[in-house]
């Protein structure tokens, strides 16, 4: 998945915002909280996608070649996809959507309603 495809997909999710920070990283948020990042963090010389995941997904994904605990964020169960061969674009989109849902669920009910994540 290219950075442009990553950004386009993240933009399509409900109530997302984007900021470019930390040396040019594309940081996507819901309710002001980060759920995914496309960056050059780590040893690979290309954009890598990092995202929040469930405990189970974290364990499974970290066993795959080309997926590592995300630099600076691993303790919060984030992974970084460093290889285009490990996961399909659809797989990555599914994990990004799950990351969005995980972070959105941590917002207050009022925030969720205000952002259109829950019925009014």
Automatic annotation (TrEMBL):
One of its GO terms (molecular function) is DNA binding. Keywords: DNA-binding. Gene3D superfamilies: 3.90.1150.30. It comes from the Bacteria. InterPro entries: YjbR, YjbR-like_sf, YjbR/MT2646/Rv2570-like. The keyword DNA-binding applies. The keyword Signal does not apply. PANTHER family: CYTOPLASMIC PROTEIN (PTHR35145:SF1), CYTOPLASMIC PROTEIN-RELATED (PTHR35145). This is Predicted DNA-binding protein, MmcQ/YjbR family. It comes from Kordiimonas lacus. The lineage of its organism: Bacteria, Pseudomonadati, Pseudomonadota, Alphaproteobacteria, Kordiimonadales.
């Amino acid at each position: 998945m290219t950075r442009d495809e990553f950004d386009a997909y993240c933009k399509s999710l409900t109530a997302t915002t984007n900021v470019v920070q930390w040396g040019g990283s594309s940081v996507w948020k819901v309710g002001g909280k980060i759920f995914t990042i496309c960056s050059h963090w780590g040893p690979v010389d290309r954009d890598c996608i990092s995202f929040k995941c469930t405990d189970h997904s974290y364990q499974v994904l970290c066993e795959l070649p080309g997926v590592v605990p995300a630099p600076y964020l691993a303790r919060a169960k984030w992974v970084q996809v460093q290889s285009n061969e490990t996961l399909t674009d659809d797989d990555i989109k599914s994990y990004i959507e799950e990351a969005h849902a995980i972070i959105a669920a941590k917002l207050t009910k009022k925030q969720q309603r205000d952002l259109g994540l829950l019925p009014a």
